[in-house]
Structure formats: C-alpha cells, structure tokens
Amino acid sequence: MNYDSAIARLNEAASRLRAKGLLEPDDTLSMRLAGCGNILLQTGSGPAQQVDIVPLAEGGTRGSLTAQHLAVYRARADVGCVLLNRQPWASALHTLAGDMPGVFDEQIRHLGRSVALLEGPVELPAIQVRLRSGANAWVAPGHVLCFGTLPERTVFNAELLEKCAKAYVLATSAGLPIGRIPWLVRWIANGRLLKDERSAAEQYAMGQMPVLSTAY
Fold first, then answer.
1. What are phi and psi of 140, to 5 degrees?
2. Coil, strand or helix: which one is 60?
C-alpha cells in the first residue's frame, strides 16, 4: 500500500467536501487501506489537520469518533470511505418525524431505500445490524454518517444527500405532498446499489481497491 498516494487521495476528497461546505473543522473523514487492515483517519483542519493510520482491530472508546469510523468498516466490508459531518440540510432531517423515504431514483441508486435516523452510537449491535442493509446515509443526534465504496463515491454521496435532504425538508416543512418512486424503479435502483457493494466487498477481500462504478 502506497500511503502517500492514499493520503493524497483522502486529502483531495476532503478538499472537495470543504469547497461544498460539507466538511467543517470538527468533522472527520476516513479511508480504508486495501490489503493491510488499516484505515486513514483525518481530523481537524488547517494547521491542526492530521491524518492517522488506525488499525481496524483497534477498540476505541464507545461513542468516540475513531470508534464510530471503525464500527462502520467492521459492519460493512464494501465501505471504503466514511464521512462523519454536520451538513446542514441532512442534519435537519433529525428534527422531522421519521426517516426520509426514497423520493428520488438517484437517491435510491446511491444512498439506499431511505435515509434513516439512528438512536445511538453505531457501535451498538442493533445499529450494526441496520448498517448492513446497504444504505449509505444515516442521521444521528448531532451528526450525519455518509459513506461509499471509495472516497470519490463518498463525496458524490454527501453532495447527493444534501441536495435530496434540502428538497425533502423544504417540501415537508411547507406541508407539500411527497411523491414516491414506483416500486419497480426502487427495486431496480436498490438492486444495482447492492450489486456494486457486493463487488466492492469482494475486491477489498482480495486486497484490491474497487473500481469506481459510473453506471446508473
């Protein structure tokens, strides 16, 4: 594993997220290092920014940022990058009653059938089971979880999540009716997401970085 190129790739993803207002100083971003059982964890910003190499086998204090990142990777063999942030519109979903359903086909294709609320730390066994549904965006008290098979996919997913959340929050707050995607479209879109995730998990298991899928 070339750590320098991996760090550069993570820094590039962080720069794109900051440019979009999706990575603030207290937010964290991490990346799975294929074939070596470690992750890169980026914390802070500016002069205080640092990137640490963290073993996936490390425990971490329950509820800590490191422990939450590690818990996602352990639950999801397909995940290659994890973002814990407080992006505004997605965070606002926690003030609404219930999960955000799949209201856009692109949302279902890349984020999953819904954006669900989490009641506690991701390390809890019950939350771990929920993460294995394949969904890539979750809202917890105080922060948002967004991930993907690669850093580039996670950046795209965070941008997509914010766009969908804004539309949903505004429509719900205004009392407007929320349409639903036809079940067949939901089934096809989610099936393709799960297929991509299975492929990524297989490639990580072989010690290889997945190929970024650009197909719908």
1. -120, 165
2. coil
Work out the angle at residue 170's Cα, subtended by the Cα atoms of residues 164 and 172, and round it to the nearest 5 degrees: 95
Residues 152 and 9: their CA atoms lie apart, in Å, by 9
Residue bearing the bigger pLDDT, 97 or 93: 93
Distances (CA, A) of 102 to 65, 164, 188: 28, 9, 13
Using the predicted structure, report yes or no on whether residue 6 has a pLDDT greater than 80.
yes
Note the residue count of the chain.
216
What's the rounded Cα separation, in Å, for the pair 78 and 115? Answer: 18
Entry pTM: 0.94
- Comparing CA positions, the residue from 92, 94, 83, 215 lying closest to residue 157 is 83
What does 70-132 look like in DSSP terms, one character per residue?
A: HHHHHH-TT--EEEEE--HHHHHGGGSSS-EE--SHHHHHHT-SEEEE-SS-TTSHHHHHHHT
Over the stretch 23-64, which tens digit does the pLDDT of each residue have? 998 999 999 999 999 999 998 766 667 899 999 987 666 558
**Residue 177: half-sphere exposure toward Cβ, Cα within 13 Å:** 2
pLDDT band with cut points at 50, 70 and 90 for residue 2: confident
DSSP 8-state secondary structure symbol assigned to residue 149:
S
C-alpha–C-alpha distance, residues 63 and 215, integer Å: 36
Structure tokens at 75: 């639950």
